[in-house]
Amino acid sequence: MRLPIIPPAELNAEQKPLFDDMKQGIAASFQGFVNIRDDGALLGPWNPWIHEPKFGKPVWELTKAMVSSPSLPGPVREVAILVTGSHFKSAYELYAHVIVAENRGLSDEKLATIVAGQRPTDLTRPEAVAYDVAYALVNGGVLPELTYRAAVQEFGQHGAAELSYLIGLYCLVSVTLNTFDVPVPD
How does DSSP classify residue 68? Predict the structure, then answer.
């Protein structure tokens, strides 16, 4: 870990309101994995974002927008997030979202295959489209036309855009976690 975890009592005036908003958002939308230390300090990507509120606040606002009434089904979202985390080998992201994906009904076999960087053979059609879009985007270049059309056909224009933004957000989350070498909790 390259940044110290900031205990709540040590937050400055700029960090405190962001911390309060994040803690409330975590309680509402990010359950099932360790993300708050016993003393109340935030773990995962939230700690680096607290260190730099100028950047952390807008990233947090995007994160809240992405979890507020998503149109994509939970398993579809988790497939895209895990493809992204696997590409970046982001340990905390994989730790957290494997747990979330299990809670959303994805099998251990699917999860193990995705985390290993491979495409499971038993994906549902929506999961397969999410996998293909995420895989293409994290590997660089323009999203292939047929992959884009499949996303629009499966999820509609809004859902395809939401999927793209979700993948982009989790690229940012992965890079943040990797930059600051954020570990998986003990």
Answer: S
